[in-house]
Amino acid sequence: MQHQQVEERLDVLTRTGHKTGVSKPRGDVHRDGDYHRAVHVWIFAESTQELLLQRRASCKDSWPDLWDISSAGHISAGDSSLTTARRELEEELGITLPKDAFEWIFVFLQDVLNDGKFINNEFNDVYLVTTLDPIPLEAFTLQVRMSKMFSNLTYWISLRNIIHYVYSIMGLAFMETEVSAVKYISYEEYKRLLAKEDSDYVPFDVNGQYGKLFDIIEKRYKENTVARSFTLQKQISRYAPISLSTEVVIFIFICFWFLCCINLYLYLV
């Protein structure tokens, strides 16, 4: 009997984001406009003030070839939000991070009618992963899969294995990437591009709910700058000259003089 690929099932939610107890195939959820959950994971490098973006592959059914969130994906029926966030980052970019690296910052309700193809009523748990320095781009291995003509034989492999894989099966034509590229961009520049609705980027309303992401980053950076400055001031003050009152100076001098007298007496005796 031919193996049939099982379509991912999603929990159907109410308009307020609560589970209904019903799950449906992903395609049916999008067809019927059911509310469901997903995760958005943003990687932010503090030292350079940059966000990591991924470029969606041309085979994607929504926003093909556009620059998008660092990593994102649906929360499968029965799965938790954090588990999904970690899994998507590992599957799409090839990096594994501990749970405490993922900071949940807010929920974003997205309601999009994507070119009439499907209705996306989605509650997105937005996570921020903050690193001190940018993760080197060469550290990422991007997600690749077989095309739809081989949908019953779906595989996920890293870019480092593509060449060996292609040579072994001699079928370059049916390889499709889920993520075609990654890059870093200044969060301020990215916000500006979204505000002007640049056609190379998946649209997000920076003046609406999604503006929280940029507000949080900006506020935190300023707070961190102040905190670092305060810490530095404390360190400097530990080595700064100490100012003593006149009374204290006189007292110290008298004590020193008295000790000298005692030492002289003991020497003479």
TrEMBL record:
<dbReference type="GO" id="GO:0016787">
    <property type="term" value="F:hydrolase activity"/>
</dbReference>
<feature type="transmembrane region" description="Helical">
    <location>
        <begin position="248"/>
        <end position="268"/>
    </location>
</feature>
<dbReference type="InterPro" id="IPR015797">
    <property type="entry name" value="NUDIX_hydrolase-like_dom_sf"/>
</dbReference>
<feature type="transmembrane region" description="Helical">
    <location>
        <begin position="153"/>
        <end position="174"/>
    </location>
</feature>
<protein>
    <submittedName>
        <fullName>Nudix hydrolase 3</fullName>
    </submittedName>
</protein>
<feature type="region of interest" description="Disordered">
    <location>
        <begin position="1"/>
        <end position="29"/>
    </location>
</feature>
<dbReference type="GO" id="GO:0004452">
    <property type="term" value="F:isopentenyl-diphosphate delta-isomerase activity"/>
</dbReference>
<feature type="compositionally biased region" description="Basic and acidic residues">
    <location>
        <begin position="1"/>
        <end position="12"/>
    </location>
</feature>
<feature type="domain" description="Nudix hydrolase">
    <location>
        <begin position="34"/>
        <end position="207"/>
    </location>
</feature>
<keyword id="KW-0812">Transmembrane</keyword>
<keyword id="KW-0378">Hydrolase</keyword>
<dbReference type="Pfam" id="PF00293">
    <property type="entry name" value="NUDIX"/>
</dbReference>
<keyword id="KW-0472">Membrane</keyword>
<keyword id="KW-1133">Transmembrane helix</keyword>
<dbReference type="InterPro" id="IPR000086">
    <property type="entry name" value="NUDIX_hydrolase_dom"/>
</dbReference>
<dbReference type="GO" id="GO:0005737">
    <property type="term" value="C:cytoplasm"/>
</dbReference>
<dbReference type="GO" id="GO:0009240">
    <property type="term" value="P:isopentenyl diphosphate biosynthetic process"/>
</dbReference>
